[in-house]
Amino acid sequence: MYRGCSSWWSAQSWAPLGAAFFPWIGGRWGRWSRFFGPGEVRLALLSLLEQGPKHGYELMKDLEARSGGIYRASAGAIYPALQQLEDEGLVTSEQSDGKRTYRLTEAGKQELGRESEAVRRIWQRAEQWEGWGPWIGPEAAEVARPAAELLKAALRAATRGSHDSARIGRIREILERARTELESLDKPPKSP
Q1: How far is the C-alpha of 72 from the C-alpha of 57, rounded, in Å?
Q2: Distances (CA, A) of 113 to 49, 51, 88, 108
Q3: C-alpha–C-alpha distance, residues 49 and 147, integer Å
Q4: Quick count: other Cβ atoms within 10 Å of Cβ 51?
Q5: Topology (CATH level 3) of domain 33-132
Q6: Average pLDDT, stretch 138-151?
Q7: In what order do the strands lie in the sheet with 99-104?
Q8: Residue 129 has pLDDT above 90, yes or no
Q9: pTM for this structure?
Q10: Regarding predicted confidence, which is higher, 121 or 13?
Q11: Are the C-beta atoms of 58 and 35 separated by less than 8 Å?
Q12: DSSP run (H or E) holding 94
């Protein structure tokens, strides 16, 4: 097996692929099936409120937009988190025009300052996931297993080749041919 793999092989870079193919399973892929880790929703909410006051629905939509559509916040997740933030004195809220608007407090700003690195990592991860949003859904699930099997076969063939550059070249040609053929399905047919 290859040692000293380059950065593209890191677990973090594979997270979107794992979630795209297997968002419904736990086990070793389980942490990838959730967009936010423990305590990260509250930091993301504080970060969004740093931009100005917002109501819960706006925050839910902002979280979805910032994640490229991967994370679809539910009221059952967001409103309890906002209530917790309010109980901790990190946000305040007021009722106006039938909507509760949340605002960051000074304590909330200090919390963001203390957790700035964690917040940076959250939004950096969101950027990595962003490109996957449009392709995660029922149609993707239909092709996920064959795509994963193709990847598995390619990696198995590559790692059993004892660093044979000709073998690696042939595997790349096969994969490029498959990619080109799939991309041709995405193009509109030529007019006669």
Answers
A1: 11
A2: 13, 14, 16, 9
A3: 40
A4: 9
A5: Arc Repressor Mutant, subunit A (1.10.10)
A6: 76
A7: 54-55, 99-104, 91-96
A8: no
A9: 0.56
A10: 121
A11: no
A12: strand 91-96
Q: Please identify which residue in the block is written with the tokens 């994963």.
A: 148
Domain boundaries, the chain: 33-132, 137-185
Q: Residue for token digits 């047919």?
A: 189
Task: Give residue-wise pLDDT tens across range 150-160.
Answer: 888 888 888 88
Which distant-in-sequence residues (6+ apart) come within 8 Å of 68 by Cβ? 126, 129, 130, 131, 132, 133, 134
| Host H or E run for residue 60 | helix 56-66
Q: What are the structure tokens assigned to 126, written together? A: 């969101």
What is residue 54's predicted lDDT score, i.e. its pLDDT? 93
Coil, strand, or helix at residue 101? strand
Q: Which residues neighbour 136 within 8 Å (Cβ) at sequence distance 6 or greater?
A: 19, 20, 23, 69, 70
Query: Could you tell me the two tokens for 172?
Result: 């790349």
Residue 91: count other Cβ atoms within 10 Å of its Cβ. Answer: 24
Angle at alpha carbon of residue 144, lines to 138 and 147, rounded to 5°: 150
d(CA 183, CA 150): 16
